[in-house]
């Protein structure tokens, strides 16, 4: 199949830059906009392997969702570009005729991302994945702890802190994305979809359901390939991402990051991390002590707290009913909300 035709360069409205040379660079044809913990990484990897598709090695550049990453130390870098020129440089290696895309799951929560993407590429295709809210938030919480955005390891307590965090309280000191800690904002599905549909025609927005994706990964990926206008008959190598371990000790988890940063940049890890890294023999670090450290700092995922999950499902049932009506699909039954009073 032929790749979707891009609009003439004169039709590409610039965001922040006036330079015509910047506007003439390759711009993405499609965007995987979210949600996190819904299979976006696996989808990114599988699409990247398709010969007719180019996706940069930088996943989640967040370019159109900069309001969600205040204070990020990566701002202005290739991984977190702040200018259109740096952002578009991510796609410079795309071959002629390849369909170009990127994956930033944060875009779906951004108030500005849909309109800005449409300003740059009004013909862009958008891929969304929705997941049952309570399971999604539980998985997201573990991810935010693992990525040093969240410091509260107890999921129920993290949910309870949302009200205080809206007032700027109990924000982890080193969190690069405090807005991510407002858990209920992640599952405002109808509001998020309306923003996308306000910016793009319905035929350019593909809404996937996580349950379908998990049930028949290959079939859904082929559906996405067809949506993107590339050959959907080529072999698809399915990808299973590694499940997260639960952080048991935030301090040890942070210390591990400090040691890693010290190895990459001796000025960034702090004196204690550099000292430990310098005196511990490599064999000791990588074997016995390393294994003991992992057992102390991490644990396998524990079963969900049934009572907490039920409370969350009661809380979010109205949203599930609303998104079912919006999409014309019975997610209430699919996700078991018909059994929740």
Number of helices: 17
Secondary structure class reads alpha/beta
Uncertain parts: 1-20
Strand tally: 7
How much of the sequence lies in strands comes to 5-15%
| Range of helix content | 40-55%
Task: Give the strand order of the largest sheet, numbering strands 1, 2, ... along the chain.
Answer: 2-3-1-4-5
Please name the CATH architecture of the largest domain: 3-Layer(aba) Sandwich
CATH fold label of the largest domain: Rossmann fold
* Count of separate structural domains: 2
CATH superfamily of the largest domain: P-loop containing nucleotide triphosphate hydrolases
Q: What is the element string, with H for helices and E for strands? A: HEHEHEHEHHHHHEHHEHHHHEHH
- Radius of gyration equals 21 Å
Highest-level CATH class of the largest domain: Alpha Beta
Termini distance?
49 Å
Give the overall shape, derived from the CA principal axes: globular
Please explain how this structure is put together.
By secondary structure, the chain is an alpha/beta fold. The protein folds into two domains: 9-228, Rossmann fold (3-Layer(aba) Sandwich), CATH 3.40.50.300; 246-299, no CATH class. Helix content is 44%, strand content 8%. It contains 17 helices and seven strands. α4 (113-120) runs parallel beside α9 and α12 (250-264) packs across α13 (271-279). The chain is globular, with a radius of gyration of 21 Å. The protein starts with 19 loop residues before the first helix and ends in a 7-residue tail after the last helix.
């Amino acid at each position: 199949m032929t790749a979707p035709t891009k609009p003439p360069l004169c039709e590409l409205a610039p965001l922040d830059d006036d330079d015509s040379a910047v506007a003439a660079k390759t711009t993405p044809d499609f965007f995987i906009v979210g949600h996190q913990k819904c299979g976006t990484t696996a989808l990114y990897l599988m699409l990247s392997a398709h010969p007719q598709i180019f996706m940069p090695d930088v996943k989640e550049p967040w370019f159109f969702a900069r309001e969600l990453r205040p204070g990020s130390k990566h701002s202005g870098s290739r991984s977190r570009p702040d200018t259109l020129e740096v952002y578009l440089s991510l796609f410079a290696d795309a071959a002629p005729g390849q369909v170009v895309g990127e994956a930033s799951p944060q875009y779906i929560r951004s108030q500005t991302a849909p309109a800005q993407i449409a300003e740059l590429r009004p013909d862009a295709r958008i891929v969304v994945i929705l997941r049952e809210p309570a399971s999604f938030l539980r998985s997201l919480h573990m991810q935010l702890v693992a990525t040093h955005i969240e410091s509260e390891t107890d999921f129920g307590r993290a949910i309870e802190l949302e009200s205080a965090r809206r007032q700027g309280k109990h924000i982890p000191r080193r969190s690069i994305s405090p807005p991510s800690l407002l858990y209920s904002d992640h599952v405002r599905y109808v509001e998020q979809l309306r923003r996308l549909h306000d910016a793009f025609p319905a035929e350019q927005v593909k809404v996937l359901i996580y349950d379908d994706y998990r049930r028949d990964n290959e079939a859904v990926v082929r559906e996405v390939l067809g949506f993107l206008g590339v050959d959907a008959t080529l072999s698809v190598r399915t990808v299973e991402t590694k499940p997260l371990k639960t952080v048991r000790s935030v301090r040890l988890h942070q210390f591990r990051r400090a040691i890693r940063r010290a190895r990459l940049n001796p000025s960034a890890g702090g004196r204690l991390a550099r000292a430990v890294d310098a005196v511990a023999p490599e064999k000791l670090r990588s074997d016995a002590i390393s294994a003991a450290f992992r057992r102390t700092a991490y644990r396998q995922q524990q079963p969900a707290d049934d009572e907490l999950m039920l409370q969350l499902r009661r809380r979010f049932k109205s949203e599930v009913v609303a998104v079912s009506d919006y999409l014309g699909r019975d997610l209430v039954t699919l996700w078991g909300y018909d059994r929740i009073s």
